[in-house]
Amino acid sequence: MRTLEDAIVSEIQLLVDNIAKLNEIVADANERNVVQLIDQLRRTETKMSLVYTFFKTAMYSNSQWNTDQQQQQQKDSIEPKDDVQTNRPAFT
């Protein structure tokens, strides 16, 4: 029975050693790569902000153009046209 316990203890020790190595690798990667990743995220955020601003500007421009078109159509429909033919007698 003692050999089974020794085998289990040995495997657990190997597992602990592997976890410690993995922890060192992750800690090293975090120290080196985090600064670069943060810089990349900041650049991406700046670009997204710029794209968002352009998008909102385009939407506002489109909205203004549509409003102007609707106002022009309403103005055109209200104003009498000179070439309109009616059956009423001419004023003299």
Name its key features.
DASH_Dad3, coiled coil, mainly alpha, 1 helix, 92 residues, DASH complex subunit DAD4
Q: Could you write a compact summary of the structure shown?
A:
It contains one helix and no strands. By secondary structure, it is mostly helical. The mean pLDDT is 87.
Distance between the termini: 128 Å
The biggest beta sheet, please?
A: none
Provide the structure class: mainly alpha
- Percent strand equals under 5%
Envelope shape: rod-shaped
Structure annotation, total helices: 1
Order of helices and strands: H
Strand element count: 0
The Rg value, from CA coordinates, equals: 38 Å
Low-confidence stretches: none
Please bin the fraction of helical residues.
Answer: over 70%
Kindly report the average pLDDT value: 87
Describe the structure.
It comes from Phycomyces blakesleeanus (strain ATCC 8743b / DSM 1359 / FGSC 10004 / NBRC 33097 / NRRL 1555). Residues 65-92 are annotated as: Disordered. This is DASH complex subunit DAD4. The protein contains one helix and no strands. The protein has one helix spanning 2-78. It is mainly alpha-helical and 92 residues long. It has a domain at 1-58. The protein starts with a helix and ends in a 14-residue tail after the last helix.
